[in-house]
Fold these 3 entries.
Entry 1:
Amino acid sequence: MSTVYSDTTVPDRRSSFFMVDSEHLDRTRFFLKIAEVILSFIAFVLEESIGSCFHCNALYFFEFVSCTAFLFTFLLLILLSTNLYSKVGISCWPTVDFSYTGIIAVLLLIASIVFVAENSRTNLESLAVAFGFFATLAFVVDFGLFVKNRGIPFKKDEKSESNNGQPGMVCPEEEKLAGQS
């Protein structure tokens, strides 16, 4: 009986379910996204552990943003590191990733600043704020790496000529309709 793979056959990476280095997420940003998930989750759990508050609006805003950062970053991580992104129906993942990461970085920064300004200065609140700032830093670094490696996906350069050879940078796809030349 012969083996499935001969010495010259290379396994198809796309057939595996989970890919650390995928089309939409390189290895460095993959681990940054994991750090974002962990740090925002810790900030959320610490915030949930606070028993009482005097300025609850700041606490609730921090809770909302840290929970949103945790859940949506975890979802984005799963989508971008598996083949599930092809089943969602979104064709421009770089724009989604760029926009989401930037917006969450800004919201986490604002939520952390507001919460640090209006908390009771307990150790738990200070720890939650610290993890909020750590998560913010991870999102900012991720955003910076995205811009450095792939550029800004909204730029309207000569789309067909210069995308630096990177797949997925031209969004949305251009199709000619019937009768157009």
Entry 2:
Amino acid sequence: QTAQGTKILNRGIKECIERRGVSLSGPDATGAQQTITQSVSKYTPQAHRALIAMRCAVNKRPFHSVADQLYIEEVKLLRPDVKAPSPRTVSRDINTIYCEASKNVKIYF
């Protein structure tokens, strides 16, 4: 009975992994997670900083929101090895994004 149950469990795991499109080995397996659009995403510090900068800019949130203890706990809960950037880093990132994007606007017009 137990061997059959383990076999069914392993088959279910394999089918789930195949359905999600996540490999068990290779570069896509490390740190990979499935998004709501059924694609595989991989954490990078750069993507995390860009997302924080966009959240602050678009939603008019203060840069200091990343120093909030509950936000830091949320980040640790989701990914314990990640350190949230400082408010100063968020400010610099937003300024860099603005300066780089404004070059494209200038060229366009």
Entry 3:
Amino acid sequence: MAVGLTLYDVLGITTEASTDDVRKAYKTKALETHPDKLEPTASDRERRAAEGKFRNVCEAFQVLSDPAKRKAYDERIQRAQLNKQAWGEEREMRKKEREEWARQAKERSEARMKTRADLYENIRKVKEEKEMRAKLVEQFYQELCDRNPEWEIRRREVLMRKEMREKGQPPTRQSTR
């Protein structure tokens, strides 16, 4: 039997059909689907398909013609529909939860990206300020050297003593007087 078809669908009747309606529908469907009604040139595949349809019709008649079996079948169908509805609601709830999680993950990602961009902007500003201060110090030092050339001589002496210390040689003091 095909997925989603009920025994009522197989016989082509409604769920309110009487036992006589079930019997009439069975006779009609049995005549339509009986494998002996096929042409003699029918392929094995067609023959097997017709046999399967006929079995489904017979099964539907056996269940729906017996009131106890029909009641049990109707209860199973009703439970299945309720379960399908509950599963649908749960699926919708999970879908909403996933969408909410994805939205929150996107917000967190965007916040991290903004924080990172702000950090890089702050680093750039600090570097610019450092470069500006270095230029100001160099400019100030250059002005001092222009006004007093002795500053450059002292600077060279300090650098030379520092270099000698690093090499391990004792510093020699040169007097500028």
